Amino acid sequence: MEEIHVGLVGFGTVGAGVAKLLLQNEKLISEKTGARLVLKKIADLDITTDRGVQLADGVLTTDVDQVLCDPQIAIVIELIGGYEPARTFVMRAIEHGKHVVTANKALLALHGDEIYAAAARRGVEVLFEAAVGGGIPVLSAIKGNLAGNNFQTVLGILNGTCNYILTRMTQEGADFGDVLKTAQELGYAEADPTFDIEGIDTAHKISLLVSLCFGTRVDFKSIYTEGISSVSALDINFARDFGYKIKLLAIGKRDNGRIEVRVHPTMIPVGHPIADVDGVFNSIRLTGDFVGAVMFIGRGAGMDPTASAVVGDVIEVSRSILAGAVRRSAPLGYLDDSVATLPIKPIGEIVSKYYLRFSAQDKPGVLAKIAGALGNHNISIESMIQQGRSAGETVPIVIMTHEAKESEIRAALAEIDAFDVINGKSILIRIEDNLE
């Protein structure tokens, strides 16, 4: 049986999972591909820590060149994450004529164009199913069985850490800080959780999804990104009163030659399938012109689900090698010269319904002043709650608006926040009622 040699750069949690899967299911994989996949070399700075995987002598090395430059290795798996040295390693692997499989969404979000172009010049594959949604096979579905569709929307819950935190806050009424601490203790959140809780990880992923769905390059820096650190238990309780749940939602939409790409806390109607995705699970919802709405749910991170996606890509590349038909599909699913650069709609131009919360002094005329300021900026009120009464003290006032333009909402809030009867900065959360 023919052998295809594989090299791995990065032997952390996911790398250990990939090695375990390749070794444990070696016979199964060979029965499905017609080749024996040989994990020839693993490069990592730490080759002494026990990862719970039994490897042959000589497989582990601290010299990455033993992976990148070995003429026998056909496929390089990059699992170190981050921007550098991952970018350098991937580019060198491509220069040496090796196919690349990666789970590195941050790298592709910022340097994808450069990597894809290098791979096209060298005639090699770049696959990255594990970069979005862990073990959820959404990218291969977009490029494969769903490729005949024009997609209108792609949206989802793409970060298990944030979803876990918001789920606990919703179910238990817990505060953000307390749940974050628990998430860190359980290993769901990093010691420095900034990339997760501030929405950066989610923005990396939606940039890839939008590129594949709409055939466009995405300037990552142009994605409006807002995290969950400002969401309070009070907002979650008010959302429940209005019939909503709060999720960190990634949104991509076509809009008359432009695209909307944004990440922010969003109120979703209770009972909608996405609202019911809880805990560390991820969900991606696509809407195509022929298939309609399709929804994927699964574990978005973790050793085993991510390893499953990585090895799936390795198998796909191996089949292409055996058939002598590599690059049957470009990395984004579109021919290279068909990929456009659609402009991103500025956040100030989006139209949405809004949840607004004000901390206002309990005095006569305050509601009238707030309503007047909203009216001055063409914003109409759908419903309102004033919780509690305490003359002269601060009370929360919550307003749900009809659809309004974001720039007008922002202008109204700037005016309202300047009132002497308003304490602190007003809270804004967007509402998505129509998730098709």
Automatic annotation (TrEMBL):
Enzyme Commission code: 1.1.1.3
Keywords: Amino-acid biosynthesis, Methionine biosynthesis, NADP, Oxidoreductase, Threonine biosynthesis
Broadest EC class assigned to this enzyme: oxidoreductase
SUPFAM superfamilies the UniProt entry points to: ACT-like, Glyceraldehyde-3-phosphate dehydrogenase-like, C-terminal domain, NAD(P)-binding Rossmann-fold domains
GO biological processes: methionine biosynthetic process; threonine biosynthetic process
InterPro entries in the cross-refs: ACT-like_dom_sf, ACT_dom, Asp/hSer_DH_NAD-bd, HDH, HDH_cat, HDH_CS, NAD(P)-bd_dom_sf
Catalytically driven reaction(s): L-homoserine + NADP(+) = L-aspartate 4-semialdehyde + NADPH + H(+)
The keyword Secreted is assigned to this record: no
Pathway: Amino-acid biosynthesis; L-methionine biosynthesis via de novo pathway; L-homoserine from L-aspartate: step 3/3; Amino-acid biosynthesis; L-threonine biosynthesis; L-threonine from L-aspartate: step 3/5
Positions that bind NADP(+): V9, G10, F11, G12, T13, V14, G15, A16
Binding site for NADPH: K105
Family: Belongs to the homoserine dehydrogenase family.
Name of the protein in its database record: Homoserine dehydrogenase
Species classification: Bacteria, Pseudomonadati, Thermodesulfobacteriota, Desulfuromonadia, Geobacterales
